[in-house]
Amino acid sequence: MEIKRIKVLNPSWEPPSDLFDEAGDPAVEQKLWDLFGEGRYDEIRVAVENIRKADPNWRPPEKLVREFDKAHVRAQLIAASDAKDAHGVLAIAESQPDMLVCADVDSMWRVAEALIQMSQEDKAQELYKYILTRCPNPDERLATIQKAMDLLPAQAVKALMAAARYRSDNGSALETVQLDLMRRQIGAVASDASAPPVPPADLKPFEALVKQKKTSNDAVLLGWHYYALKSWPAASEWFKLAMDWDKLPKAAEGYSLALRQQGQLVEAEAIAFEWRNTSPLIVKLFVEIVATAITQANPTSLEEARLARMEDVVSTTKSVNGSQALGWYHYNKGNFPKARQWFAASVSWDATETNALGLALAAHRTGDRALFQKTIADYGKQYAAVAALMTYDKPPATPGKGSRIARRGAGGGGGGSPQAGQLANAAVEQFKNGQYREALATLDKRSGVAREDHGLGVLRGWALYHLNQYDKAREKFVELDKKQSTRDTQYGVYYAGAKLDPLHRGD
């Protein structure tokens, strides 16, 4: 009767298993429960041992023992899961199947992940399905779909979403997840064009929704999607929409890139310049667009305003690529003092083979022998192409003397013909003065009266190289190297080959 009375007052109360045991101190048990609630399991063990030392007949409450054992097993499962020990996770789950319940969804998530790691996707999918259709917490169901999205293929996630619609209270959450799944599929293609394509039946409704809601981030995502597929007009359309809806640097960057891919270089450059202060990537893109234009063979002259803004941006950002491009632009235009200025700036920001080579050549062309020698001394050991310019540092040729290449060429074919020797010396002098086209013309004229020897062949190769005709230069160096491999031919083959790209093909 007393037990009934107490349970009426406190329905959760359980009578002791042995009514004749001496009642324990409630404060002692409460301390154990407090430690359990805080997850301080090791301290519980110590506390139990201390209590039993004081009272050997004392026993912890059975409910606490059961909950403690469950918590201990769960801690083992979490540790194995965090360590990516799929075997350990599944072994624990198989020995304690009663822990896979809705009251502990986190454990089910961890077991599902372990199943996927063990290539048992079907079982993982069933476990996710159980949570989606049986467990009551809507937030946990939504999180379940999101976790499945990160671990399972899109088709498997779609199957789970179809099963989840069994519950009417999953509706709004599923709509959000469906959009996220679509974004993931589109993003996969944007990152890798070889990824499975997005079905048009799914893509078109998504595009319509993006236009309706004017979600700029989704428009940018679609822009990169079409950019990866090389659908430049579609990419530029989506990037432009994103720019109209919101001021997103990524949209401007994509728009400029898409315009450049369509050959609309003036428009691409204008967009990149307008947005240059919003992102380091965009200002870098602006410099690249202009640098590409001015480093082509025989570039057209830049308008004064366009050149001034390029120089201003390069100076502000200390762009190595931009400064050396300006150096070569002025060098090819014959403005050697200006070229030397930009090469010097580029080298001071970050020395590379290209800008060190340009600085040495500009110093040579301006007659600054001290700077020429210093540049070779500073960078010749690091860059072989710079070291090779030492042949430029020779006194002017006199009768009976000349450069190494001149000595090789003057005694070439033609039976020592005076005309052949004169033409050879003229070609060498033109080469030293940077008159590479004239040197080639003189060599062509000489080939009509005498066979071109190895030394003059090397000179021809380097003349082609300095005219940016890298394919023809490499072809010449390869031909010479097969007949007689020397340091000059090896350097020529390597450096001409390194320069080859679609923008530097010979005429």
Please, could you describe this protein's structure?
The longest helix is centred in the N-terminal third of the chain and has 21 residues, at 62-82. The chain has 507 residues and is an all-alpha fold. The model is unreliable at 395-415 and 501-507 (pLDDT under 50). The chain is 71% helix and 0% strand.
Features:
507 residues, elongated, disordered C terminus
Biggest sheet character: none
Unreliable stretches (pLDDT < 50, length at least 5) are: 395-415, 501-507
Number of strands: 0
- Number of helical regions: 28
Q: Work out the strand percent.
A: under 5%
Secondary structure blueprint with pairings:
Elements: H1 2-9, H2 26-37, H3 41-54, H4 62-82, H5 86-95, H6 105-117, H7 121-134, H8 138-151, H9 154-164, H10 171-191, H11 200-213, H12 216-228, H13 232-245, H14 249-261, H15 265-274, H16 280-294, H17 304-317, H18 320-332, H19 336-349, H20 353-365, H21 369-379, H22 384-387, H23 404-410, H24 418-432, H25 436-446, H26 454-466, H27 470-483, H28 487-499
Helix pairs in contact: 2-3, 4-5, 4-6, 5-6, 6-7, 6-8, 7-8, 7-9, 8-10, 9-10, 10-12, 12-13, 12-14, 13-14, 14-15, 14-16, 15-16, 16-18, 17-18, 18-19, 18-20, 19-20, 20-21, 23-24, 23-26, 24-25, 25-26, 26-27, 26-28, 27-28
Task: Provide a concise account of the structure shown.
The chain is mostly helical.
